[in-house]
Amino acid sequence: MGLTYLALLLGVLLAVDFYSSRIFRRDYIRSAGDKLASLTNVAQARPPRLDDAAELRSWTEWLAKSGARVTVIDNAGKVLADSDHDPETMENHSTRPEIQQALATGEGQSVRHSATLDRDLIYRAVRYDRAGGPPVVIRMALPLAQIDSSLAELRRRLLAVYLVILLVGGMFSLIYFRLFAARIERLKNFSRRVAEGDFRPLPAERPRDELADLADALNETAAWMDRTIHSLSGERNRSSAILRSMVEGVAVIDAQEKLVFCNRAFSEILNLDTVAVEGRPIIEVLRNSDLLGLIRRALRGEEGLQSDITMGIVQLRSFSVTAAPVQALESGSAPVSPASAAAPRAAAEKPSGAVVVLHDVSELRRLERVRQDFVANVSHEFKTPLTAIQGFAETLLAGALEDPGSNRRFLEIIRDHAVRLARLTDDLLKLARIEAGKLEVEFVPVRLAELIERCAETTLLKSTRKQITLEIDVAPGLPAVRGDAGLLREVLQNLLDNAIQYTSPGGHIRVTAVAGAREAVVSVADTGIGIPLAEQERIFERFYRVDAARSREEGGTGLGLSIAKHIVEAHGGRLWVESEVGRGSKFSFSIALAG
Ligand code: ADP
Question: What 3-state DSSP class applies to 24?
Answer without folding.
Answer: helix
